[in-house]
Design a protein that fits this description.
Blueprint lengths: L1 E6 L3 H12 L3 E8 L4 H9 L3 E3 L4 H9 L8 H6 L3 E4 L6 H11 L2 E4 L11 E2 L1 H4 L8 E4 L2 H14 L6 E9 L15 E2 L7 H5 L7 E9 L5 E8 L8 H9 L4 E4 L9 H10 L10 E4 L4 E3 L2 E8 L6 H12 L5 H15 L3
Parallel strand pairs: 1-2, 1-4, 2-3, 4-5, 5-7, 6-7, 8-10, 12-13
Antiparallel strand pairs: 8-11, 9-10, 11-15, 13-15, 14-15
Helix pairs in contact: 1-11, 11-12
Amino acid sequence: MIRVAINGYGTIGKRIADAVDAQDDMEVAGVTKTGPSFGCELAAKKGYPLYCITDDLERIASFSSGGYECHGGLSDLLASADVVVDCAPSKMGAANLAKYEAAGIKHMFQGGEKHELTGLSYSSSANHAANMNADGTRVVSCNTTGLSRTLVPLYKLGSSLKVECTMIRRAADPGDSKKGPINAIKPVLKVPSHHGPDVMTVMPEIEINSLAVAVPTTLMHVHAIIADLPSGHGQTTESILDIWRQTPRVIVMHGEGDRLTTTAEVMEMARDLGRKWGDLHEIFIWEDGVKLVGDRLYYFQAIHQESDVIPENIDCIRALMGTESDWRASVAKTDSAISDYYGL
């Protein structure tokens, strides 16, 4: 049984904790919070041991004054686990990495940290094998995960793939009131944006550039993608759609016919399916927005930024621990367990 520590029990951390709890080869060793809050109440109800995000004795004592049992500081949690999933706010990575290395524990960061922090990044379909038995890695961001899921199968059609992508990004998560824009469209003036080059950290063979704009919504990201397939690929629009239909964690649906023409309707579908938190782990592709013209493929896809990386973290744990070398087998196990956990 793999004992998993989760350092940071917020938007991503709480979802990863439940995904770990769903697996029959893993258990939650504990989760961390900065101090007493509603998140502590949620962890307690789930039965997850609660720890402080630091070893500061005064901070640790503050939990009991708030009515919560705290089992100690971060060092205590790391000593009781096999691997730690870092879900702390971005820019804390370097300091946390030093703590993990000092504790001699395997470690995983999220896409908010840079690839250079660990020198290794993870996406299940792209480079699961490269992460086997590694000491540490970074699960790529929600956008990079979405791009990898749909582009890697296209790359495997031949020996080359050139991609231009425009990211229409949500401004903030639904629970985040601190970010904007509120009544504006904000272009990311760094060209290319980091999203495309980030794909190359897990699949360097894909030649990709990206632009990004932030828009005032909290629901999802949308990608507008142009991909140049290698000549002689022998594909049609329908055969490309069939490839994606057979790709794990990808959903292909007809926008007009299924009345799913906007991200709001896609998220409503996830809620109607009974998904916890209304999550959509899969990448959503609008079937009627896909068109192959010669060697050039055009398509749109939508990314639920709070959840598509959650199952990736579970597969990454197995890679680091060396317990499953076949990425498809791990994906099937992860997804089945999560589905059973929520009675879906």
